[in-house]
Design a protein that fits this description.
single chain, about 300 residues, mainly alpha, 2 domains, disordered N terminus, Protoheme IX farnesyltransferase, heme biosynthesis, EC 2.5.1.141, protoheme IX farnesyltransferase activity, UbiA_prenylTrfase_CS
Length: about 300
């Protein structure tokens, strides 16, 4: 953990405002949780097994709580890093509004509640899958990979890719090629998404001692990796459209989105460092924004395709 002068820390926390309900909500990383909720819902809804709407709602709710618990545990352990990075300094723990022990308690309590309740409303396979996902994100990624290897976001990205598989498991009690391909879609999307961000946030990661690829290997290598991953990602995206959950609507959306994403990856690859700095990394920021809509529109297309009828 980062060393902090005790007197300065006491003065800082004394001046910090008291925690409000919204601060505890912020611990759960609601923006990240919204992606977890949506992809889990799609995985559950398009599965070839009918689930009562109330049970489906409860299942997605408890998956969301599990995702929020992961976020709280991540913030608890990463408080030292968050205090250094500009984009995270205002989070509840580094700002002094929530004590680390409180965040740990929230994370552990919600983890237990989410897993137990998902087992009761869905099945114990899905509950065990959720428990593994929480463990993977909080321990394997946060405590180990993030501070150890530049492949942190590649391997650790699996945690964010599990929710549609958990949703599918809630309905079917198992795993299929369709759920694996939904996993692959998120898994291979995660590196170019975060590396595009890291290209214009490199100093943040460097100051915090996080071995992001931009820090350990430089921006040129990162650009090549981004473009390579967009090509691999496109293959899995199209493959998903050829399965039982795909169809012409999904494939049309996938083709357009992947053409745009590959084009963006190519533009990032061809960038000169001087030009990138001169325009404030405008291309990199545009590709990052595109990546935000890329995943949402893919899963929305799966929902629409399911409503219209699949292959």
């Amino acid at each position: 953990m980062t060393d902090i002068n005790a007197a300065d820390a006491n003065a800082y926390h004394a001046a910090a405002p008291e925690a409000e309900f919204r601060d505890y909500v912020a611990l759960l990383k609601p923006r990240v949780m919204s992606l977890v909720v949506f992809t889990a819902f799609v995985g559950l809804w398009i599965a070839p097994v009918d689930v009562h709407p109330f049970l489906a709602f409860c299942a997605v709710l408890f998956i969301a709580l599990g995702g929020g618990a992961s976020g709280a545990l991540n913030m608890w352990y990463d408080a030292d890093i968050d205090a250094v990075m500009k984009r995270t300094q205002l989070r509840p723990i580094p700002s002094g509004r929530v004590e680390p022990g409180e965040a740990l308690a929230v994370g552990l309590a919600l983890s237990g509640l989410a897993v137990m309740m998902l087992g009761l409303v869905a099945n114990w396979f899905a509950a065990a899958f959720l428990a593994f996902t929480i463990f993977f994100y909080a321990v394997v990624y946060t405590m180990w990979l993030k501070r150890w290897t530049p492949q942190n976001i590649v391997i650790g990205g699996a945690a964010g890719a599990f929710p549609p598989m958990i949703g599918w498991a809630c309905a079917t009690g198992g795993i299929s090629i369709e759920s694996l391909l939904m996993f692959a879609l998120i898994f291979f999307w995660t590196p170019p998404h975060f590396w595009a961000l890291a290209l214009f946030m490199k100093d943040d990661y460097k100051d915090a001692g996080v071995p992001m690829l931009t820090v350990t290997h430089g921006r040129a290598v990162t650009r090549r990796h981004i473009f390579a991953y967009t090509l691999v990602l496109a293959g899995f995206s199209i493959w998903l459209g050829l399965t039982s959950v795909g169809g012409p609507v999904y494939l049309a959306v996938a083709l357009v989105l992947n053409a745009a994403f590959i084009r963006g990856g190519w533009q990032v690859l061809r960038r000169e460092e001087g030009a990138a700095r001169a325009d404030g990394f405008a291309t990199e920021k545009r590709v990052f924004r595109l990546s935000l809509s890329y995943l949402f529109l893919h899963f929305l297309a799966l929902l629409i395709q399911n409503w219209m009828g699949t292959w």
